[in-house]
Input
Amino acid sequence: MQTLSRSMGTQEMNQGYRRHVSSGNQAGAGRLLTVAIVALLLLAVAGAFRLLQRRSEFQTLAKETETLAIPTVAVTHATAQAGQEDLVLPGNLQAYVESPIYARTNGYLQRWYHDIGSRVKQGERLADIETPEIDQELSQARAARQEIAANLELAKSSAERWAGLRKSDSVSQQESDERTSHYTQMQASLAAADANVRRLQELQSFGHIDAPFSGVLTRRNVDAGTLINAGNTGTRQELFYLAQIDPIRVYLSVPEVEAASMRAGLAAWLELAQFPGQRFEGRVVRTANAIDPATRTLLTEVDVPNHQGQLLPGGYAQVHLQVRAASTRLQVPVNALLFRSEGLRAATVDAQHRVHLRALTIGRDYGTSLEILQGLSKDDWIVLNPPDSLEDGQEVRTRELPQQPAPGGARR
Output
């Protein structure tokens, strides 16, 4: 019985052990499955996260690419000009009368009497030219005249003598007419000789160079001993340049839009950098009465008294014309212009950040800015330094720049 009890106990123990081992194996397999599932879930989450991250990167890159594809431009407003101001234009100073002095005879310069900067009066001697060939020709012409004059006296006496003989029928009418004709020919020869002598005397007098009008010598191109050629031929053409500088002429080009305001008698004054604060009063005396098709301007002349000789020919001045304009006009910088085949354009940006190309009509040029007559308003945003690739309707981003003040005091 004890043996049977031990045997039954052993069997129970073995069965319990087998149940324990089996339950342990099942628990281990469950844990491995759980770990595998968790690992798969983690890998799936990591893959999804990576995919989302790459998608976000792609979207960010696409947005940045789109953003970079939209150009950024600097914009500003046009500057308004003040009304009721003078019209100021650049002018060139020229002598009222300026003439090169040429020689009318050949020879060598014997002496000159005035140098550059000298003020001379009309008829005052400028230089003397030595003309030995002309002198010899004049002596020869005078001698030939004396010979012709002597022959004329002989022909005259012969004609009178033969006319008397014809009355007594001592000679034929033919012979009397021949003597009379010879006398007439000698008279004509004497007249030709007198004309030749006067011509050579005139050429000899051209050896004295006199001032044709009162003025200032601005140039002397010859010196003593220089070979002089008559007229404006040869290497040495002009002997002197003579200029009358009181009054002085000022020529300026008036824009076509202001041409109607130009009239004779319009008040004007000059402003020169070398005379700060000083005004030189003058008047408009004439215009060309025609618009230059190349520049679309009207050539205008202003005469200014120059008694003290402060204004010099060839100089530059700012001419203030007493033309009043009440309308407000706009100025834009020169770097806001687009030069297209269809004409001058300016790029503006609207509220939707779209570009619009505007055709412009310009007025005066101030150097760094231009006056705009048509095409823009003061509220328009104008693109500065627009690229050539800019197209109408293109989207842009804007960066505002401070507005530059307009030049004050006058319209230039």
About this structure: The two ends are 138 Å apart (CA to CA).
